[in-house]
């Protein structure tokens, strides 16, 4: 062929992914051309025949090339099938990964909301505790003041109608904090001492 050799054609065929599985056989009239055989095989040729061609050798060579070509095509199909399978599995894994990340983000937001609720509840509990303590302190102070008024009434010998009720409910003692319970007992003791001393 003018301007291009069989070696060049073979190299081009084997470098093209769509054509590389086509078997290439070199023919030569020179039986002892060892360099040409080596060069042809290095270019990617599957076989090298010398003229005159032996028909049985050619038939055996063609059968072998057909088997090689079928195996190569099957290999290509298997490679494509595996690539498709890997792509599908990768897509599924990516979808699972994204779903997991979304779930983790939802859990994180839920935990943050729960923490804010718990913090708000703790703040309300502290506020309620302070309010209760202040209420108990006011109630105890009122009882102390009533006891003092009653003591003055006794000292001034005013009639009983001027006296104030100074009962300290036991329920407050049971529910109060230890310091509140101690103070309530102390107030009760002081009231008792005041009336027994008069």
Shape field: rod-shaped
Mean pLDDT: 82
Radius of gyration: 53 Å
Strand order of the largest sheet: 1-2
* Number of distinct helices: 5
**What string gives the helices and strands in order?**
HEHEHHH
Low-confidence stretches: 170-174
Q: Note the main sheet.
A: 2 strands, parallel
Oligomer: single chain
Helix content: over 70%
Intertermini distance: 142 Å
Care to describe what's here?
Helices cover 74% and strands 4% of the residues. With 198 residues, the protein is mainly alpha-helical. Among the domains are: 1-53, 3-Layer(aba) Sandwich (Rossmann fold), CATH 3.40.50; 121-197. The chain has a two-stranded parallel ribbon. Helix 3 (55-155) runs parallel beside helix 5 (178-197). The model is unreliable at 170-174 (pLDDT under 50).
Summarize the structure.
The chain is mainly alpha-helical and 198 residues long. It contains five helices and two strands, in the order H-E-H-E-H-H-H.
Which key terms come to mind for this protein?
two-stranded parallel ribbon, Rossmann fold, mainly alpha, rod-shaped, 2 strands, 198 residues
């Amino acid at each position: 062929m003018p301007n291009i050799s069989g070696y060049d054609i073979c190299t081009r065929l084997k470098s093209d992914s769509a054509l590389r599985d086509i078997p290439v056989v070199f023919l030569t009239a020179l039986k002892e051309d060892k360099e040409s055989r080596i060069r042809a095989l290095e270019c990617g040729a599957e076989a090298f025949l010398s003229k005159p061609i032996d028909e049985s050798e050619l038939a055996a060579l063609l059968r072998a090339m057909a088997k090689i070509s079928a195996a190569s095509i099957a290999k290509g199909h298997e490679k494509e099938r595996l690539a498709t399978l890997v792509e599908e599995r990768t897509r599924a894994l990516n979808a699972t990964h994204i779903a997991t990340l979304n779930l983790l983000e939802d859990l994180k937001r839920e935990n943050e909301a729960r923490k804010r609720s718990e913090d708000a509840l703790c703040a309300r509990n502290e506020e309620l505790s302070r309010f209760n303590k202040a209420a108990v302190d006011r109630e105890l102070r009122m009882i102390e003041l009533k006891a003092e008024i009653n003591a003055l009434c006794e000292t001034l010998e005013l009639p009983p109608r001027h006296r104030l009720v100074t009962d300290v409910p036991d329920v407050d003692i049971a529910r109060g904090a230890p310091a509140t319970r101690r103070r309530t007992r102390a107030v009760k003791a002081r009231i008792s001492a005041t009336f027994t001393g008069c």
